[in-house]
Write a structure and sequence with these properties.
It is built from seven helices and five strands. By secondary structure, the protein is an alpha+beta fold. The mean pLDDT is 91.
Length: 145
Amino acid sequence: MQQPTEKEIIDEFIQICQGHLLKITPQRVAIYKELLISDKHPTADAIYQAVKKEYPNISFDTVNRTLLKFAEIGLLEVVEIFGGAKRFDTDVRNHHHLHCMRCGKIQDFMHGGYDNLAVPEDIHNYFQVKRKRVVLKGICKACSK
């Protein structure tokens, strides 16, 4: 299967935004493009630092609110927060995370067994589970050296 082109990805982004009546601005497109090229589950500040090079008048608040709006409409997800800044993930497919407790790196991985974990029956009495994500915390190979 062929990977979509950047134009196809941006076209889909625009369609999703328009479907949620979200105005398409050059700054929003720049924020989304920056998310796409990052494979490190960036913080709002990391995105802000990158985007302000092209748009020096953009505020951190604008970037942060935009990221949260993107999460609200399903373009990305807020990654589990472990006492630090929120991190963002554009991969909205079902996957899991390895989280290094030393350097903070978050790495995606797939595992069908984790996808199929059974939710205990009593939870269904008071909570409607929509998604499951397993987070394994430990020390990455680089930090182990």
